[in-house]
Design goal:
Blueprint lengths: L1 H30 L2 H22 L2 H11 L5 H25 L1 H8 L3 H26 L3 H25 L3 H26 L9 H11 L2 H12 L1 H10 L1 H14 L3 H19 L4 H36 L11 H24 L5 H23 L1 H26 L10
Helix pairs in contact: 1-7, 1-13, 2-4, 2-6, 2-8, 2-10, 2-11, 2-12, 3-4, 3-6, 3-9, 4-6, 4-9, 6-7, 6-8, 7-8, 10-16, 11-12, 11-16, 11-17, 12-15, 13-15, 14-15, 15-17, 16-17
Length: 415
């Protein structure tokens, strides 16, 4: 019952939170050209690739430490993790400075914005850790207030800069940056109030976090390779405007993530507690729930595809209607991504994150290979098909890995 309540809380929060940028979509598609949208898309791609090198899985390490560590040692572990994020952001900023000309050529993003991205990723890391802490403490209300506040500030400043001051795509990215600056300050104040920043650094904890997080980098990079590298291929073969049109389809097609991510946020603390002392009956119950959710995710993808023409007609400027053609494969790919979340938690729980490396690298390279062929031949439709295939492959491969390192009755008869 607690799981159901948490699930409903997180899903409700995610729906409210996502509805705000969803209603921003018709405004952005009216005031921004497809080329502007393409620039925003490529900035998002760079952020997605940069974030894993700055976050370094610190939020995941803190999540497991919250249950495994003694409470009096947790503050030192926590502060050690935050210090890793800070040092990583400084190093990545230096790398971006050296390669800014090259990055500008392949993404068409101005160099000044390229140099801001590592700082933005540090801010996002801080807010991500704060949200993770709320989840582990089962403080769904705090989580909701925090996340919705972030989005409202983002929405308000973006509208002001784009609609009133006519700052085009720069106004939109400025709105995002300002919202993360404000909520990062709020996060640090909260950490300080909970005395999570008062302990000294611990070399042993830093090594433990890096041992947890560094093997995750290929896994975390695989996500952007599968989900966002296609924008760079579309930009190269079809131009920034087509990348912008495709990104509108992606935003609508991945709305299923509201449910899948919301459930996983509620499920992780529930699952970790259960796995500490679980019998066969408990395992069968979890497997039944997982299979029901997998079927539900597929049904949601089909339903989203059916109603998508009405969504476009009501909310989206006609310049972007071509994006309707990409909804079905993107929605199916999003449902496979939800299934992936259901099975990957066992790997995180056992802290054998290095086992994800082979699967995620292989899947990421497969995605790049397919995009290089299908986008060149079929344009954005090829990118949507690649997204669907890649998400299915990573789900299956990680499912196999997790079933071997933590035994669950996935294929045995379930009474």
């Amino acid at each position: 019952m607690k799981l159901v309540k948490l699930f409903l809380s997180y899903v409700s929060i995610n729906i409210i939170n996502a509805s705000i940028p969803f209603f921003l979509l018709p405004i952005l598609t009216t005031y921004l050209t497809p080329t502007d949208y393409g620039t925003l898309t490529n900035i998002d791609v760079i952020i997605r690739f940069t974030l894993p090198f700055i976050l370094l899985g610190v939020n995941g390490a803190i999540n497991t430490a919250y249950f495994r560590n003694e409470r009096h040692t947790f503050p030192a572990y926590f502060k050690s993790g935050i210090s890793i994020n800070l040092i990583a952001s400084i190093l990545i900023t230096c790398i971006f400075f050296v390669f800014s000309n090259f990055l500008n050529k392949i993404t068409k993003v101005p160099q000044i914005w390229l140099l801001i991205i590592p700082t933005y990723c540090l801010l996002q890391s801080i807010t991500t850790i704060c949200q993770s802490l709320f989840q582990m403490q089962k403080k769904a209300v705090n989580y909701g207030i925090f996340l919705i506040s972030l989005t409202i500030i983002n929405f308000t400043v973006s509208i002001l800069f784009v609609v009133v001051f006519k700052y085009n795509w720069q106004g939109r990215i400025s709105g995002i940056l300002i919202s993360y600056i404000i909520l990062s300050i709020v996060s640090l104040v909260y950490f300080n109030q909970k005395k999570l920043l008062s302990s000294s650094y611990n070399k042993e904890y830093i090594n433990d976090i890096l041992k947890f997080g560094i093997p995750l980098i290929p896994h975390l990079i695989s996500g952007p390779l599968v989900q966002f590298s296609d924008r760079l291929f579309i930009t190269h073969y079809s131009g920034l405007s087509n990348a912008g049109i495709y990104n509108v389809a992606y935003q609508i097609g991945t709305v299923i993530n509201l449910i899948t991510v919301g459930f996983n946020q509620a499920f992780v603390p529930y699952l970790y507690e259960k796995l500490k002392n679980i019998d066969l009956s408990g395992k069968k119950r979890i497997v039944k729930q997982s299979y029901a959710l997998m079927l539900g995710y597929l049904i949601m993808a089909i339903m989203l595809w059916i109603v998508s023409p009405f969504i476009f007609k009501i909310f989206i400027n006609s310049r972007y209607w071509e994006a309707q053609n990409y909804i079905l494969p993107i929605a199916l790919g999003s449902s496979f991504g939800g299934m992936y979340l259901l099975v990957t938690n066992y790997i995180f729980y056992t802290k054998k994150t290095y086992l994800l490396t082979i699967a995620t690298i292989s899947n990421g390279l497969t995605s790049v290979f397919l995009n290089s062929i299908l986008v060149r031949k079929y344009g954005a439709q090829g990118a949507a098909i690649t997204f669907m295939i890649s998400n299915f492959l990573i789900f299956i491969s990680v499912w196999i890995i997790s079933s071997r390192i933590y035994k669950m009755p996935w294929i045995k008869k379930i009474q």
